[in-house]
Design brief:
By secondary structure, the protein is mainly alpha-helical. It has 6 helices and 3 strands; from the N terminus they run βααβααβαα.
């Protein structure tokens, strides 16, 4: 918090011998305090050369009150022309080593939790991909089994037809009778195979 002014040249000249404040007959104590403040050197002064010339707000208030009581023609704002508010540098308090260590520990814990969360998401995605591939493999195997079953059905029916047609030549002499007999036998075999195939397909879909 600011509590000092850096006195400007106007105030310094007014306090000098034969200055404007000389005619106001300042109290000895107030003049002495003002002159001492202007001559005192302060650490951290903003002026690179000479004293910092810091004047406290208390002395400025006392001077202002005295001039008002005397109904002086001098105004405080005129005397403070060129003056500046002094803002000292704020010294940062030293950091607590225990607090710093706790903060670092918390940072490490947060980083570990974030890493675990990221790796957990990656693991879940891998497991989902593995499940998709497993389901796809099951579907491929089911389709393959279905294709094989249909192929066996066709081969069995054709084989039954050919065998009946060739074997019926010893029973029937006419070709139409032989073909009819072969069709009947092939149909019976086909219906039996179809029944077995449907049962097998129902079992496959039931497992899926």
């Amino acid at each position: 918090m600011a509590s000092y002014l850096i006195a400007g040249d106007r105030l310094v000249r007014a306090l000098a011998p034969a200055g404007e404040l000389e005619q106001e007959r300042l109290p000895g104590k107030l003049r002495a305090e003002l002159e001492a403040a202007l001559e005192k050197k302060h650490k951290g002064g903003d002026r690179p050369s000479g004293p910092a010339r810091l004047v406290s707000f208390r002395l400025i208030r006392d001077l202002h009150q005295y001039l008002r009581e005397r109904d002086s023609a001098l105004y405080l704002h005129e005397l403070l022309e060129g003056s500046e508010i002094y803002l000292p540098e704020v010294e940062k308090p030293p950091r607590n080593p225990e607090l710093v260590a706790r903060l670092e520990k918390i940072k490490v814990q947060l980083a570990n939790e974030e890493y675990k969360r990221i790796t957990r998401n990656v693991t879940c995605q891998d497991s989902r991909h593995g499940g998709i591939l497993s389901d796809l493999g099951k579907e491929v195997r089911s389709i393959k089994a279905l294709v094989i079953t249909i192929f066996n059905f066709i081969v069995t029916v054709v084989a039954a037809f050919i065998c009946t047609y060739l074997g019926s030549q010893y029973v029937f002499t006419e070709m139409a009778s032989r073909i009819l007999a072969a069709l009947i036998v092939a149909s019976v075999v086909g219906l039996a195979e179809l029944y077995v195939m449907v049962r097998a397909v129902e079992g496959e879909f039931g497992e899926m």
